[in-house]
């Protein structure tokens, strides 16, 4: 049976991504899927995009990725997020910008349907208590994978499961450890990985990103 790792919302935090990939590499995973928001908020966009491309990880586009290539999207963001988007635009290589432009908002393969927000709206926030059977069955796939909220959950219905693996690079459920999920048939596990938060905080501060963006990493909010 094939084993999949689900990651999402890496948000230019390569320190966290490396820790997660190190653990995934030890778990005999066949395929890694990323549910969007590769960049934004933190200061390592090229390191993150290079690694996702090098490993040919299956990715979709999140709202922060879109904001880098589509100015209208930036206008929907709060000032801290928009600041980080502008910083990312200045630092991302042309090749990596083109990679973000190439991403689709949806991916369907191997029984997985992947959306950043939901099957109905690419950028709506779906928390666990908002998931219903209509959403779970919308894509006709065994697994529906969502990101965007940075809060992990697994909701099972008969014949369909909805999974949010949480966020690698900016968890918001009060647990500062990086989050991801492993899927193997009916077995679905959310995993948490401690990483060197102060290391990405130092990098963010030295690059002039707002301190509030680093502070929230320490608390996982
Ligand atoms: Fe995000």
Features:
single chain, 221 residues, five-stranded mixed β-sheet, 20% strand, globular, binds fe (ii) ion
Description of the molecule:
By secondary structure, this protein is α/β, with parallel strands linked by helices. The protein has one domain (4-219): Purple Acid Phosphatase, chain A, domain 2 (4-Layer Sandwich). The chain is 36% helix and 20% strand. It contains 9 helices and 10 strands. It has a 5-stranded mixed β-sheet. Strands 4-5-6-8-7 form a 5-stranded mixed β-sheet. Helix 3 crosses helix 5 (79-91) and helix 8 runs antiparallel to helix 9. The longest helix is centred in the middle third of the chain and has 13 residues, at 79-91. The model has no long low-confidence stretch (mean pLDDT 97). The structure holds fe (ii) ion. Fe (ii) ion is lined by residues 9, 11, 37, 62, 64, 148, 150.
């Amino acid at each position: 049976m094939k084993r999949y790792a689900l990651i999402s919302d890496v948000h230019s935090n390569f320190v966290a991504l490396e820790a997660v990939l190190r653990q995934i590499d030890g778990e005999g995973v066949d395929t890694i899927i990323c549910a969007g928001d590769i960049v934004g908020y933190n200061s390592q966009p090229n390191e993150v995009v290079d690694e996702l491309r090098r490993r040919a990880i299956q990715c979709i586009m999140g709202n922060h990725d879109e904001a880098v290539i589509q100015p209208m999207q930036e206008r929907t963001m709060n000032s801290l997020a928009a600041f980080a988007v502008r910083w990312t635009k200045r630092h991302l290589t042309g090749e990596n910008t083109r990679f973000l432009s190439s991403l689709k908002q949806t991916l369907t393969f191997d029984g997985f349907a992947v959306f950043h927000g939901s099957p109905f709206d690419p950028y709506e926030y779906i928390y666990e208590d908002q998931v219903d059977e209509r959403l779970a069955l919308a894509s006709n796939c065994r697994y529906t994978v969502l990101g965007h909220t940075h809060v992990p959950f697994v909701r099972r219905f008969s014949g369909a499961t909805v999974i949010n693996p949480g966020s690698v690079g900016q968890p918001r459920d009060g647990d500062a450890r990086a989050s991801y999920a492993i899927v193997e048939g009916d077995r679905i596990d959310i995993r948490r990985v401690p990483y060197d938060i102060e290391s990405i905080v130092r990098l963010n501060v030295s690059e002039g990103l707002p301190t509030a963006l680093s502070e929230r990493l320490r608390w996982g909010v």
